[in-house]
Amino acid sequence: MVTPHPPRRAVGSLAAAALAALVGCSTPPTATPDFGAVDLDAALGRVPADVSSVRGLDLPLDRSLLSPVEELEVVRARNAVMERCLANHGLTYTFPAVDPARDAVKPRRHGLVDDGEAAAYGYRDPAVFTPRRAAAKTADQPPPDVVPVITGAGGGVVGGHEVPSGGCAGEADRTLADDARPGQEPVSFALSHRSHEITRSAPPVVEAAAAWSRCMAEARFDYADPDAAVNDPAFRAGRPSRHEVSVATRDVTCKERVEWVRTWVAVERAVQGELIRQHGADVAREARHKDHQLSVAREING
């Protein structure tokens, strides 16, 4: 199934603890607000009858969400602050190198849409077959004397200086965000996930998927919808076969022919617009929060 935010590729294992700590800073709400039939009807009423003019893949909630590259910019800055903090306590540890442009996963929210990628890699992530620099290799885990200073466990004085509250990780979080919660914006992320779930089964998207299936059948590829193709068990292991490449390239052609992506994007833009209308204050607050942490991160990263 296509997901709103594909799982992050391991950034040379990004010192799992460091990335997990950042992601854990922003906890999504326990429940996503309801979006009923009346809300969907209101949104669908704003979808253009002719979607041929729909361009791009951008969505309204992008304004308050960190992109995959931006998330890694924050990770990189957070690591830098923690390294400086450790040095202040007489400790040396270097987190795995992070290159946001290189390491960020390419979003496929609406599936495979690039004919060049389809021809070269089938349904696979091109990064899997891209040589990586030595700096991206898995780093050693922090030594035992470093971990408590990163986490703040035990507190006390190390290297002649008091360990800050929450350790060097806590100091980094307070540096990046006034609320000490850097990372993805939780309400916007939950709403983005909700809009994806709502729209994938919205009538215009389902109808476009059926048209895509008929287009695929003309080339003798039997798939009910684009998800069925990308999730074909035959396309999971090893390098892409000639058959997989043929399916993938036809997939992209059919999506373009029946305007499946344009339809889904148009519907999701309308649904996200309605969700933002319902939760405008939260989304505006998170847009400001995102801008602040990203500004601080870029200043740190230089």
UniProtKB/TrEMBL annotation:
This protein's record includes keyword Signal: yes
Superkingdom of origin: Bacteria
UniProtKB keywords: Signal
Leader sequence segment: 1-31
Annotated protein name in UniProt: PknH-like protein
